[in-house]
Amino acid sequence: MLLKYATDKIQNFKVESLVLFVPAFDRIRNNPLKELDAASSGGVKTLLKSEEFTGKEGEVASIFNPRGYQAKRVILIGLGENKKLTPDSFRRAAGTVSRFKGLTSSKTAAFCLGSFVDEKFFQAALEGYLLGSFELLDFKSGEAKRSKNKLSRITFAVEDLGRVKDVRAAVEKGRIIAEGQLLVRRLAFTPSNYLTPRMLAREARQLARKHKFNCRVLDEKAIAKEKMGGLLGVAKGSAEPPRFIVLKYRDGRTGQKPIVLAGKGVTFDTGGISLKAPLNMYEMKGDMAGAAAVLAAFVTAARLKLPLNLVGLIPATENMPSGTATKPGDILTTRKGLTVETINTDAEGRLILADALDYANKLNPQAVIDIATLTGASLYILGYAGAPILGNNNRLLQRVKEASEATAEKVWELPIWDDHREMMKSPIADLINSAGRPAGTIAASAFLENFVANWPWVHIDIAYVDLEPKGKPYTPKGPTGFGLRLLIELLSRWKKLS
Questions:
Q1: Among 342, 361, 300, 350, which Cα is nearest to 426's?
Q2: Going edge to edge, which strands form the sheet with 339-341?
Q3: Are residues 164 and 270 in the same domain?
């Protein structure tokens, strides 16, 4: 996608489609609408009177060949109520218009945000367009493999020549962040026969080489040497061997303690012996969305040149039923030495994250954030709308919430009480890996807490926000890529916690 910037009058933009972002209105007040109405013989008034376009969120309308405009068509996209507008309003509007036939059939377009001059609005508009127009065509054939979207150039209208530099920087940042989120979606969409643990490790190596950060991969022998009994226990049932991926990005000052990101990398989850219901099991190719978010965060941090030291930890495995699989009731010994009675083999994510969190202990981190499609119970807490977060440090939790506000990737803090810690104790081992349905999301976090040493930690449970069941303005049906914007915003604002 070629991006350009111009300060000319919008009537002079030589593009096939001119897109005007319009807040809700009951009469024509702003100059772009007044000029368009005059050039179209009252076309805007006609749309308003017929209620075909009033600027409500999601409304789209076209006016063709207005007099004096170089553009063949002007597309109006509604933002919603002016007093409620945020950057996400522009993200949603651009996502909606990204699939509008009038725009997808155009090779060139211009985006005019009118009087909205904050760079964050421009950034969000490009993010929305790129996220909303996402298609995965890799596994189609013939004509279906070709995208029908012809748009290859977007020009942003900037009112003031002195602001072009800032707008360009914001839009380019938006491009990098959106492409990071699309990487998460692509990986989460990829079928498990095309993305085994070894293939995920290979992808990580390739991305690390391309974007100049370090990637080390531990094979099953190295994993055994690390005594990662949780990861090995989950992997036992699969013919595919596990991998433990360690990413390192260093652009902070010498001696700066790293921030550790850990992501669950179950490339397919049948539930193991505790087999899942078959109806939607195909979705479990995306049970590595946390790992994908961590890997994409490293790519994005490197592209943005964030001045930080980061370490990424990705335990990657399949969870399969077989004659060699871990059985309910089996006891595993984790890297930390704690023993775990496996009550439910479908509670596998916390077993592999336990080893990753304990591995983080030797890194002397300033903070650790783990992200995982961990519990089905999260559906009954926040539905598909947001992600529960839990942790041991109020400052870090607050920063995650602030990043959530800035990115519209919604989170909500839950507590971990002693009652929940008691739930995870075993009569014959140190811990159990599942206490059943009650407080399932919190109980899983109480389990993970046992492997966290004396450093700030937050757990982000992205189960059910990792998949969009119907489709939203900039989130087509399928994997969402949730967490990438949240993590990058958190890292971009990073300051020492103490």
A1: 342
A2: 331-333, 339-341, 431-432
A3: no
Q: Residue 498 pLDDT more than 90? A: no
Could you tell me if residue 497 is inside a domain? no
Average per-residue pLDDT for the chain: 97
Q: Which amino acid is at 228?
A: M
Are both 75 and 194 inside the same structural domain? no
Q: Identify the pLDDT of residue 188.
A: 98
* Closest alpha carbon to 482 in 360, 382, 356, 350: 382
Distance CA 20, CA 492 (A): 30
Residue 474 scores a pLDDT above 90: yes
Cβ proximity of 177 and 406 under 8 Å: no
419/321 Cα distance (integer angstroms): 32
121 sits in which H/E element:
helix 119-132
The residue behind tokens 């490293």 is 298
Share of the chain above pLDDT 70, in %: 100
The catalytic site residues sit at 276, 350
Which of 180, 214, 244 is at the close of a domain? Answer: 180
Which tokens is 3 given? Answer: 């991006």
What digits encode the pLDDT tens for the residues 52-108? 999 999 999 999 999 999 999 999 999 999 999 999 999 999 999 999 999 999 999
- Number of separate domains in the chain: 2
**In-domain check, residue 389:** yes
Domain boundary among 180, 206, 226: 180
